[in-house]
Amino acid sequence: MAATMQVEVVSPEARLYSGDATEVYARSLDGEIGILAGHQPVLLALAEAPVRVKTADGAEHRFEVTGGFLQFKDNRLTVLADDARPAD
């Protein structure tokens, strides 16, 4: 079983996702980043782009994010989005 991390995706209006994930992909202002459990701590400003959260069962959750921040520390990843919604 793949290692997991705790992930939260939140916007000012709602918590869109809270749970374990094996991988998270996002686009920062400096480019695309992939985060796995055990990644070094990071704080990034997000570009307007999808954030993808992959879970151990193979499911993928996609969110349209219009900026904000991504923080990873102590095996917890938080996306604080300026605005976000589930992608169709």
Report on the architecture of this protein:
With about 90 residues, this protein is an all-beta fold. The protein has a single domain, classed as F0F1 ATP synthase delta/epsilon subunit, N-terminal (ATP Synthase, domain 1), CATH 2.60.15. It has no helices and eight strands. The chain has strands at about 5-10, 15-20, 25-30, 30-35, 40-55, 60-75, 75-80, 85. Strands 1, 2, 3, 4, 5, 6, 7 and 8 form an eight-stranded mixed beta sheet that branches. A hairpin with a 2-residue loop joins strand 6 (about 60-75) and strand 7. The chain starts with a strand and ends with a strand.
State the helix count.
0
Instruction: Tell me the structural class.
Output: mainly beta
What proportion of the residues is helical, as a percent range? under 10%
CATH class: Mainly Beta
CATH-defined fold name:
ATP Synthase, domain 1
User: Based on CA inertia axes, which overall geometry fits?
Assistant: globular
User: Can you tell me the number of structural domains?
Assistant: 1
Q: Please tell me the overall pLDDT.
A: 96
CATH superfamily label: F0F1 ATP synthase delta/epsilon subunit, N-terminal
Fold blueprint:
Layout: E1 5-10, E2 15-21, E3 23-28, E4 31-36, E5 42-54, E6 60-73, E7 76-81, E8 84-86
Parallel strand pairs: 1-7
Antiparallel strand pairs: 1-2, 3-4, 3-5, 5-6, 6-7, 6-8
Features:
mainly beta; ATP Synthase, domain 1
Question: Brief overview, please?
Answer:
By secondary structure, the chain is an all-beta fold.
